Amino acid sequence: MANQSNIEKKSNIFKAARAVLWSFLGIRNKDEAQTDMANLSLTQVIVVGIVGAVLFVLTLVLLVNFVTR
Questions:
Q1: To 10 degrees, the CA torsion angle through 56, 58, 59, 65?
Q2: Mind listing the pLDDT tens digit for each residue in 44-57?
Q3: Cα gap 13→67, rounded to integer Å
Q4: Residue 12: its pLDDT value, please?
Q5: Under 8 Å between Cβ of 42 and 67
Q6: Phi, psi of 28 (to 5 degrees)
Q7: Residue 30's domain spans which residues?
């Protein structure tokens, strides 16, 4: 039972990451977005969104740093 719970949590994190990444790109299907809202917790989406934004900014900073050297 505990193993199944861990698998579900990991799959939900991956589902939240997928939902946030598609949202970053701006190409979300309305039906999929509603399904994600029903199945994902707000906390998961917020945490994944913050991590994604930080990674995006760090990537841009590193890219600009690499180009300007």
A1: 150
A2: 889 999 999 999 99
A3: 34
A4: 82
A5: no
A6: -110, 135
A7: 2-68
Q: What is the C-alpha separation between 28 and 14, in angstroms, rounded? A: 16
pTM: 0.72
Spatial distance between the Cα atoms of 2 and 66, rounded to a whole number of angstroms: 45
Domains of the chain: total: 1
Contact 69, 52 (CB under 8 A): no
Q: How confident is the model at residue 62 (pLDDT cuts 50, 70, 90)?
A: very high
Question: CA dist 41 to 36, 48, 56, 62, Å?
Answer: 9, 11, 23, 32
CA distance 1 to 25: 36
